Amino acid sequence: MAGVTSLNDKAFVKAAAEEERRVDGRPLLGNRQVRVSLLEGGVGAEVRIGHSRCIAHVQAEIVKPSADKRSEGVLQIELHTSAMGDPAYEPNRIPESIKQGRAAVQKALVKSKAVDLESLCVIPGKAVWSVRVEVRVLDNGGNLTDTALLAAAAALKGFKRNDVTTVGDTVKIHSHFDREPLPLTLYALPLSATFGVLDVSKDSETDRTVMISDPSLLEEQVLSSSITVIACTTDQPVLYGILKSGGCAVETSLIQHACSLAVQRSGEMRGA
Amino acid sequence: AGQLRAMGCELRPLTRCDGSASFNLNTTSALAGVYGPREAKSNVKQSDESVVMVSFNAADGPPSAEEKEVQSMLRQALEAVVVRSQNPMTQIEVAVQCNHDDGGLLAASVNASLAALADAGVALRAQAAAVCVAVGGDGGLLLDPSRGECEGASAVVTFVVRADDGAVISSHCTGACSEDAYFNALQAATAGARSTVSFLRIVFEKRVASERACWSDPQ
């Protein structure tokens, strides 16, 4: 019974949205405080957005590459929830928020080719680096997508792999004491901004929707739909993906607004 | 050699758990979250006492056999300390996440779990703490070893000791050492456990004092 929100709470959030207010006092498009801290030894990062907390650990090892990608490294990013993140945790059940988080992380960091995989090749066809990022949700305070993606991105940015030298077919991995470890080559660091859409139309009126930025846990229970925009602002704003879960229909102008806000937010978060 | 590293403890870092605590021994850090006592699933429910379930995640990737061993050791140690008869038909879930391992991870995990259980208001039988000791080849002891020191030792033992009378609740030993060395390690660990318990007591007293100040403030 721990994960159930009362009808009164839900009605309260909706009524507040009708008046263009939010339950925690933020403006409609206001975001919670973002705190990023890198772990000791550059092995990962911990991110807090409001009460949501995710930790990402990075590991790298030398493996044999697959036959069709002989000179590319491997990047795997996994997102898990843990028993401490949510009282309703069950080992084999994956909540919606995690599924969305996984989709966003794959789009932003793996499919976008943000990490230079060719630089992870050691001996073509024989040895490549396989980098594995594991993101775990420690505390679910809403908007796990942004928190998890930021944790994975920060972890990859701060990660340094061991230096290697190749002698013929053998690979010698140098420890941190022998040689300085090297950072990964990242072309871009796409980050996401999630918006919630609340349907506050009364019965006979035309659809009226209110968009809020960075929904908290309580707001997530009430949303009619959510939009996650993945963007990056290195030289010029580039969009890497837009994820809109079903729910109510929204006007295109709303989505455009969300995109421009996301670009702004990804710039802010990079600075964090 | 007989000194514990700087300890740190933060109470209630997590918001959704009933109780949580993080415990650091210098850079070794473990975070524990507790849910419970709450309704147990019918297949684990016991009619006379509560069930303690532990899940442990190390910083490294997929669950390994070592993790499972730590998980079961943690569960057995906590089952001995928690007053299980107080809440029959319920389960108490403890989730432990390791953030950094620089030696003494098992000890940090046990201490974090005990602090989190106390934070959740679960009744505990005794004040106990875990301490790690490394035994060198010559029988020399290193209290609260770092990772490098653990790797060079011939045996690493983690004791969970009751602070009041020095009784051993749990002992986990990796490697081989002589009988004398083991009992010397236990003595050193008991002293270490007493310091840890006093430290945790100070942390809890501070928290209770700040909560009391919060409640008694007329505003």
TrEMBL record, chain A:
**Single GO term (MF):** mRNA 3'-UTR AU-rich region binding
- This protein's record includes keyword Cytoplasm: yes
Q: Which domain of life is it from?
A: Eukaryota
Which SUPFAM superfamilies has this protein been placed in? Ribonuclease PH domain 2-like, Ribosomal protein S5 domain 2-like
Exoribonuclease phosphorolytic domain: residues covered: 45-159
Indicate whether Secreted appears among the record's keywords: no
InterPro entries associated with the record: ExoRNase_PH_dom1 (IPR001247), ExoRNase_PH_dom2_sf (IPR036345), Exosome_comp_Rrp42_subfam (IPR050590), PNPase/RNase_PH_dom_sf (IPR027408), Ribosomal_Su5_D2-typ_SF (IPR020568)
Q: Which GO terms describe its biological process?
A: exonucleolytic trimming to generate mature 3'-end of 5.8S rRNA from tricistronic rRNA transcript (SSU-rRNA, 5.8S rRNA, LSU-rRNA); nuclear mRNA surveillance; nuclear polyadenylation-dependent rRNA catabolic process; rRNA catabolic process; TRAMP-dependent tRNA surveillance pathway; U1 snRNA 3'-end processing; U4 snRNA 3'-end processing; U5 snRNA 3'-end processing
Where in or outside the cell is it found?
A: Cytoplasm; Nucleus
What are the record keywords, sorted? Cytoplasm
Recorded GO CC terms: cytoplasmic exosome (RNase complex); nuclear exosome (RNase complex)
| Family statement | Belongs to the RNase PH family.
Question: What's the protein called, per UniProt?
Answer: Exoribonuclease phosphorolytic domain-containing protein
* Organism expressing this protein natively: Hemiselmis andersenii
Automatic annotation (TrEMBL), chain B:
Q: What is its main location?
A: nucleus
Q: Where in the cell is it found?
A: Nucleus
Q: Where is the signal peptide?
A: none
- What keyword terms does UniProt attach to this protein? Exosome, Nucleus, rRNA processing
Q: Which family does it belong to?
A: Belongs to the RNase PH family.
Keyword Membrane on entry: no
SUPFAM superfamilies the UniProt entry points to: Ribonuclease PH domain 2-like (SSF55666), Ribosomal protein S5 domain 2-like (SSF54211)
This chain belongs to the protein called Exoribonuclease phosphorolytic domain-containing protein
Q: One biological-process term from Gene Ontology?
A: rRNA catabolic process
Q: Name one GO cellular component term.
A: nuclear exosome (RNase complex)
Q: Where is the Exoribonuclease phosphorolytic domain?
A: 3-122
Q: Mention one GO molecular function.
A: RNA binding
